[in-house]
Amino acid sequence: MKIYKCEDYIHYNGKIVPKHKILNNSDLIVFEGSLEECFNHMDKKVIIVAPSPHLIDKNLGEQIDSYDIIVRTNNSYLIDRPEDYGSRTDMLFINKMWERNNQDKIPFIIEKYGNRNVIFKDNTDLSGPKGYQMNTNRGSNMGVITILHLINMGYVNITLTGYSFYQNYPFYLEEYYKDQEGMVLKGESHHQKKTVLEINNLIKLGYVKLLEDSQYYFDIVKRKYL
Question: Looking at residue 208, which CATH number applies to its domain?
């Protein structure tokens, strides 16, 4: 049995239909999720807000809040600067380190945001969209993992802000991250060349764009690594 996702739609006889509708009837195929949910996702504007302190005094909060879905990772949901980071968290992605070190907080975040809107790293879908040429895996940057999972959910309009690609210091708002065991507070986390290649590929495919604040740092790492 083959599982189809939102991207498995085509134009057929002037209509948008799931590909399996025109396949041989003997094929046993199901669609993952509802058609209505899929197209709802395609229409939504999503923004992923990373926790770099370079957003302080940028006053992007209102712009961030204008997006349909605001996505954060790990401790970012604690940031209480709505004028700069926005006021909502609609989806929260959690990496293995945070999950391991914050078992006591997991019931709280699930109750606050809903089981469906808290996505743990082990439950993410890392399969790339058509044309994606990178080998993203469990060791990849959580930001890239989050983007791929959102694309696999059917979201195709994803914006990044608060990403510095570890080119500024401090990397995080320290009052929210200083007590997190294992957080990278110096140097670069992960393999930044790999991260830059992955995000650059997704930008070229049209799934991702960057707000001006993150574009500035992305241009720096592109010159450094590409």
Answer: 3.40.50
Find all residues with CB under 8 Å of 81, minimum gap 6, and list them.
55, 56, 61, 173
**Cα distances (angstroms) measured from residue 132 to each of 110, 144, 145, 207:** 32, 12, 13, 11
Total domains in the fold of the chain: 2
Task: Let me know whether 138 and 207 are in one domain.
Answer: yes
Q: Could you read off the pLDDT of 138-173 as tens digits, one per residue?
A: 888 899 999 999 988 888 899 999 999 888 766 555
| 22/50 same-domain check | no
Helices 192-204 & 142-153 angle (0-180, nearest 10):
30
Query: Is there a contact between 84 and 108 (Cβ–Cβ < 8 Å)?
Result: no
Domain hosting 141: range is: 44-225
DSSP character string of 97-145: HHHHH-GGGHHHHHHHH-GGGEEEGGG---PPPTT------TTS-HHHH
Question: Quick one: 123 and 95 in the same domain?
Answer: yes
Which residues in 174-188 are b (16+ Cβ under 10 Å) and which e?
A: eebbeebeebeeeee
Same domain? For 26 and 64 the reply is no
**How far is residue 104's CA from residue 91's CA, in Å, rounded to a whole number?**
19
pTM of the model: 0.80
- Residues 48 and 33: their CA atoms lie apart, in Å, by 23
Instruction: Specify which residues 119 forms β-bridges with.
Output: 93
Instruction: Note whether 129 and 202 are same-domain residues.
Output: yes
Residues 6+ apart with CB under 8 A from 186: 169
